[in-house]
Structures
1.
Amino acid sequence: MIIKCPWCGPRDSSEFVYQGEGGRTRPDQSSTDQSAWNAYVYDRVNTAGDHDEIWQHSGGCRSHLKIIRNTVTHKVLSVVFACDTQDQEKPA
Amino acid sequence: MSPRRAASGGLIDRSRTIRFTFDGQEFTGHPGDTVASALLANGVSLFGRSFKYHRPRGILAAGVDEPNALVTVLRGEAREPNIQATMLEIHDGLKVVSQNRFPSLGLDVGALNQLASKLLGAGFYYKTFMGPVIGPLKGTRFWMFCEHLIRRAAGLGKAGLAPDPSRYERMNAFCDVLVVGSGPAGLMAAKAAAENGARVILAEQSARLGGSANWSEDTIDAMPARDWAAGVVADLTTTSNVTMLPRTSVWGYYDGNTIAALERVTDHKTSPRIGEPRQRHWTIRAGKVVLATGAFERPLVFPGNDRPCVMLASAAERFAVEYGILPGEKVAIFTNNDSAYRSAMTMQEAGCRIVAIVDVRTDISPAARAIAVRTGAEILTSRAVTSTEGGKKLHCIKVQDYDIRSGAVSGDARSIDADCLLVSGGWSPVINLASQAGARAEWSERVQAFLPPKDADGWVGAGAFNGTFSLEAALAEGLAAGGASAIDVPAVVDAALDIAPAPVFEIEAKGKAFVDFQHDVTADDVRLAHREGFQSVEHLKRYTTLGMATDQGKTSNVAGLAIMANALGKQIPEVGTTRFRPPFAPVTIGALAAERFGEIRPERLTPMHDWHVAHGATFYSAGLWHRPMIYGLPGETVEQAYVREVKTTREAAGIADVSTLGKIMVQGPDAAYFLDRVYTNTFSTLPVGKARYGLMLREDGLVLDDGTTWRLGRHDFLMTTTTANAGKVMQHLEFLLDVIWPELKVTLTSVTDQWAGASIAGPRSREVLAACVSGTAVDNETLPFMGIVYGEVDGAPVMICRLSFSGELAYEVYSGAGHGTHLWQALIEAGKPFGMVAYGLEALGTMRIEKGHVTGAEIDGRVTARDLHLDWMLSKKKPFVGSMMMDREGLVGPDRLQLVGIMSLDNLPLNGGAHIVEELDRENPHDSIGHMTAACYSPMLGRHIGLALVKAGKSRHGQRVFTSDPLRKRFGPVEIVSHHFYDPEGKRMHG
Amino acid sequence: MVDQLSPLQPVLEAGRHPLADHSVGVTLGETQPGSIVQLAAWRGQEGAAVATIRDVTGLALPDGPGSGAFAETKAAFGFAPGKFLVIDQDEGLAAIFAGAVTSETGSVTDLSHGRTAIRVGGPKAQWVLAKFFAVDFSLSAFPLGSGISTVHHDIFAQIQRTGLEQFDLYVFRSFARAFWTSLRHASEEVGYEVQ
């Protein structure tokens, strides 16, 4: 599998490590909502199809990437820096 | 008549002679020969014994599709089994032996299996050896009894026990266009792509490039096809943007056009050059893949179709034209399509006599008939071969009337003398790689075969792969696949035969008719599987093992499906086909391991490594690191050495190499704030020039790691982690910074390798430092516990932090790694007057057990901070990673496994990993209440002690329990005590 | 001042190991720079970092990921978003950068002892490196002066192209000897010279 790192360009999947599902939202650091924390740590969608994922280019620039990958065909549909998407999701 | 070499012809170099041995007998051949062609040239027709029935077998095919002629290659002590004689090039000194025969190929006692063949049909193993024991000759226990004999009697070649001395390598390649197959279509595609300026790789599994051009009688561009191919190959070879890879089997097609290929670099050489690998494993990332993999001719299924000298028609053509071999004198042909007529023509021109052409069809095309007439052969339409006669060679064939509509055989059998029977059952495009890439094969009524789909992602097909059997059309497809239109398709003269076969796969008559030659699966086995209820093609495959041998059913898949479909009363496309999996051709394990063959992991060495080696250290691998275990004196045991090292350290001073500790620079205006979030305790309050012990939890509230972090500047922290967890901690922190809190201005950098670290411990450690450190004082005032100072040791700049793992007064002295050996030697010199020793991991481990400090053995991913009695480190003033999850139900409570000390009561050693039990039962150990995590002999207590995680351990201090270690047979009484064995008040450390 | 001791020093063994035809496909050596410094810029401050590198070293880095530049005794390239490796044959570069970079723009980390610099050159340099790294070393994909981060199993490497046929590799010091051994082994096939 090839992942096109937005910084390094296309690289072999062996340079990357999977770091969990991408759709999860971590509660605010000071949140005391136990169910929200439980959901963040344990709940997974596990889609058969287009799947939100976080990968780290650990054998390259070490950036974390937000990837949409089809878990049935292994086709990588989009790759962006995880830090960029995080900014958008944060309330202004 | 035996097969022989024609007086002239072939692409072999007759001016040179090569000597090799087969089953110990010397044979000769010429450069360009394979073992198959050279042995045929020498009149050998018997190549091996079949898998189950030990039937004599000869050559069926001429290339990678050969199912029968498997040999074992001997290289020194090493033996490599199951190599196709048709793919193995000869070289001087090559030694090959035949397989699955005893005592010899010609005289094989295993052939008696044929007498018992009724018992050995499909599902023999399941029926005989699975399930409950009913009488003495059934069931799993019977299998245990028979396994040894059966494994000897059935099977392919034997692997050797000697290590493989060969060298293997890996290669990464990138290209715009990868062309697989160098036949006319592939060459055309490569040429077109190269002329477009693309980076091209052309992979060909055979030694000779050109594919079918090497054995066809066609004309391209007004010259023989093989001359045209040779010209194109010569051009491409000198083109800078083209890489030619002969002897390279493309065997795997993975996601994202990642292609795996195996190049046989020196298998054909008597003596490889220095440094040349035997095989090279290529991983090719291709923008586009052109699949020009051609088609395999299929045999027909009829009784006796596996006799030596029954051969695929195209294989005979190839042997005749490429190798100058005449497979027989009196050649008969049996076909369901027109392509065999071209074969007949070729064989006749090569010098054979074509005695008969047996065709199942009623009508044949005028072109085919014209060829048949020219060969002088008797044309027998509406006829079929229903048996063959002979032993290890063919003597004659029996022909009967055949009704193509009903498939019925009738009339008297007519005997025709022939020493070679060429068979053609139609052609199957080699769609294996496309299938691996996810393409769903489509059945073609016209070609009677599975074709690749038209629309593909990442690859494009050309030539016979697409079911395109006209040479002109194949060249045009190659051009288009290579991305060209400017060049005209070269003019072509070919036999102009339509290969579309009649839908006949099997002639049902009395006798064993083989579908899968390599696994000895007959047509009756397929029908038996159907009768026993196996209806899906996947089940059929597993039950009969059809298509599961090393050839992966290259010659058998379609016939097997056709017979199954017939039994089910369905059409072939309704039955479907199985998806091909890698590898397309066998791959050596050595090639997959490549440069890691033998040496599995790279060594990671500290800056002082050579000193340790020179001073008698015994090493221990901790992850990838090599760390001194002990510095043994002559005659010392490991225990004596570490006991001495511990005693000397605790009584005077000791020095240890701690360079392996994970070190991460945490820098930036938000660094302190970040550390407050990731550590359970507070770091923002830590003054510059001081260190603090920190504990980190995972998001789920369990302990991740511990270590000290030093504040070197307002925005600069040096974090240390345990040696084993350095990478894990780094990844954890990077994830938080990059994904969760990208707004924080913090840089993380691994500086483990930047620093050499020496830990000096013991009551006299301060004196040692005072003797060698300049530029700073090291007294209690200047350098208090957890303080940091900067100075020099013998000219090398150092940073010293006073902290202790051993429980003694201790310091960690750091210098740049490049100064590590210099620093170490200076410290050793300075320590001499004080009796300082160098100590290794065993002593370090012993001292930490005596102090009850935790490491990775206790922090096993299941423990909480409270389990380790580290509650005091959990800040209540701030949230931190894991703080909301650490007190969940199940993670708190009195029955958790908690850290305790264990003391041996029988004065015998304890073992890490042993269980702790309340009731000792050697025969049937039960009810573990916990396990030992570490153990040692404590020189200070004079006892065997250890640490353990024990259920409700905290409340059990003083309890007598038992260690239970059935694997090592160590059982005995122990006492649960506090994990602080030695100096619990910490007076020594602060002294 | 004490000299740095290279981890390769005891195993370097300068000399020629040519093929039978006396040809040598690659030359291997250690460049032993006095300074290897990492410069990290906060988001939005990348331009300031590039300017600082230019001011301190005179090297002008073009825009774009992995861009770099090199001169006789100095080199610099980006190896990750906002991160640059700056190399100088002289010691003391980290201190100069520490004075030039404020906590408002980024951070400076001295790696002079932590990385070992290995130079691979010659007509077969790409061939030998391709045995280790799944990276396209062709000039079009890996232009002169530019840098990359990649990995060979456990051995992390930052690589800069410093010639049409020359690459400088920065590997973790603790792995340098293991990598060097593998590199020599892989070079045997094409003939090599250790300088």
2.
Amino acid sequence: MREIDVKLITEKVRDLCIEANTDLGEDVLEAFDRVIQKEESPLGVEILKELKENARIARDERVAICQDTGFAVVFIELGQDVHLVGGGLKEAIFEGVRQGYRDGYLRKSICHPFTRANTGDNTPAIIHTEIVPGDQVKITVAPKGGGSENMSRVVMLTPSDGIEGIKRYVVQRVKESGSNPCPPTIVGVGIGGTFEMAAFLAKKSLLRPLGRKNQDPELDKLESEILEEINKLGIGPQGLGGRTTSLAVHVLMMPCHIASFPLAVNIQCHAQRHKEIVI
Amino acid sequence: MTEPIRLKTPLTDKDVEGLEIGDRVLINGVIYTGRDAAHKRLSDLLKEGKKFPFDIQGQIIYYVGPTPARPGQVFGSAGPTTSYRMDAYAPALIEKGLKGMIGKGMRSDAVKEAMKKHRAVYFAATGGAGALLAKKVKKAEVVAYEDLGPEAIRRLEVEDLPVIVINDVRGNDLYIEGEKKYHKG
């Protein structure tokens, strides 16, 4: 049994909140470079260049890439041979979020649903914990902005809708979202499981680095086909018209009930922010 | 790509009538920030017939809730928020003399109608380019609703804030026209 003090978790979550919000991943910057070559709209090219310049400023000056520094979504893979000491895991993560959003000059965007009163410190965080073999802890912080989250949906299709039904729904969702979720987007798709699991899969699929293929050849094919359809829509960077509506489609799938065909679409803006660390 | 048009606030009817969808504009002068909660309060003032905390004639409202500024920074990251949430309030403000709005995402028919009728325009700034846009803000102060934190109304002095005309006074919409142009059936 390996002992880990939760103070270390707090410290790492704090740092990851700041890093994720100020340092856009190389995979996203490389994706911008790839699509700039293909973009037909002059205005679209200008926007993509602006996004690259914005990422450079944010990284150099340690300021937020986007003012919407998001809901702090934290994925924990906890080794079953780890014994956490010094306090509760949840509180340790919340404290890390509190410190990160304070010390990183990040916006506090969490409020009471009815009164809209701000909680003041960007807590609570959303925590997804998975118990895994081993004696390590993997922490991933993925801040999620409101604009793109608002365009996301879960739908219970019927089994007869088939793969075509999935393609139709996802493409239609991106079309209806238009310029709202800050295209070029990344489209996370969760298929199967239950109502809540489909949404979780869609969110988790967004953690895969851009440019890395899906390991499942059938899903890899589905991703390419949906992406092709999306980029025919013409929405383009920021919705001003163009070829680049989405940078990628990521799919995760699991078996579902014989009566069901759950589908979730989690739309992610171009500021695809996530950082991880293994303790 | 044509050169951007430089505009100074407050805007006149003539300024906005000269703009067309797709025009790149650099805004200079004073603009005000306001998003969901601030719009709700302005709308309540209107209903009660009370005075606004700033003169709205010819002004531009930027839909933004910035991050806190780092020490040494004039303004925190400041990209636009999605505009449709302000659609319920915008027509009344346009009627009161508001000449421009900066945000992102499509507006409702009622807002577009009000822009046509009262000569106002809607601009988009690049969503997610918060670090870049913050550098265009040269001075910032809260003028109302400090309790709202990032949602307070701020008076900003901006230099060459880059925006694009989405809706002009003739009822055109760049989101519709742009998508149409690049759509592949």
